[in-house]
Amino acid sequence: MQERLPFFHGHVFENSPAASKVNGLSIPARRIDAQIWCPITGTRIKLHGNGSEDFRAFAHHKHGNLLLKTSKVLDREARSEYLLSVALCCQTCAPESGVSAVALVKVDVLDTNDHEPTFGVANRVHITLNDTTALRSVIYRLEADDADSGNNAVLTYTSAPKNGSFYVVPKTGEVLLVDSILGLPSQVQFSVFARDHGWPPLTSKAVVFTVAPQRWSRSPSGLAGSGGRGRSPRALLDPAALISLNVSEDAGIGSVVTNLGPSRFQSPSYELIYPESENSPVSVGRDSGELTITRSLDREAEPFVELTVKIQDKRGV
């Protein structure tokens, strides 16, 4: 059987200048059965294989080792590894046709942090969000790409300036609603960035978010019970008003779904009148108007829940 060729492994960082030494690679002459370099005409060293022109080999006469250097600037994104063969012969003892490989060499091109993260969306995102959207809802999901590898491609998402209504999950890029926007007088604007873990770290261009609250619709005033002449406005904020909420079945017990305030009353009092409290998965804060999860939700068993809340003026006007 043919004798296995000795194998050597080295590496070089991308973007290193031409003539940079391949690190970790030094081939002793004794490992490839080569005599100490021929004192008469010298030893011919040839590299074979795809991409062999990107390197040049030379003999270190003092130590009897074979080394490799780059012949151009390498780009890991274009090519990350080379597998080459090394051939040696003395110019006076072997014709060109008699040259055969004496060793195999693998060279890895290591990554440097030379690409900043990029988003695949436009640099501006405008969202119209129902002001009764449940808290902890994911209103948008961002994903950035980084052409580097390893830690250079590990990303963290962040937002600026900080605001109390929205939070960007650092690892996933999800934008969460964390505080009620009910009654918010104007739109909220913030920017989201992606930053890699390389050194030095690189940051993407900003994606600017503009979130405009959309008021939930109210029933027409002509509906029955809309408060005719002589009737005291003791009941609903707007009689027969309908609020539609989407809540994740993963919402934890104690999570605030939304806040029914502000009310037109100066001293409102909130009361859940349907269903009865022991059957409802949600409680209503008597003074705050907050809807709070009180038990686990299961969409398959209970895909929707209808609630009726009465709002009164505690002054009894």
UniProtKB/TrEMBL annotation:
Highest taxon in the source lineage: Eukaryota
GO BP terms, alphabetized: anatomical structure morphogenesis; cell migration; homophilic cell adhesion via plasma membrane adhesion molecules; neuron projection development
Keyword Membrane among UniProt keywords: yes
InterPro entries documented for this protein: Cadherin, Cadherin-like_dom, Cadherin-like_sf, Cadherin_CS
Residue ranges of every copy of the Cadherin domain listed in the record: 4-119
Main localization of the protein described in the UniProt heading: membrane
Keyword Repeat: yes
Any one Gene Ontology cellular component term annotated for this protein: catenin complex
Keywords assigned by UniProt, alphabetized: Calcium, Membrane, Repeat
A GO MF label: cadherin binding
CDD domains the UniProt entry points to: Cadherin_repeat
Gene3D superfamilies: Cadherins
Subcellular location: Membrane
PANTHER family: CADHERIN 23, CADHERIN-23
Name under which the protein is recorded: Cadherin-23 Otocadherin
Organism name: Takifugu flavidus (sansaifugu)
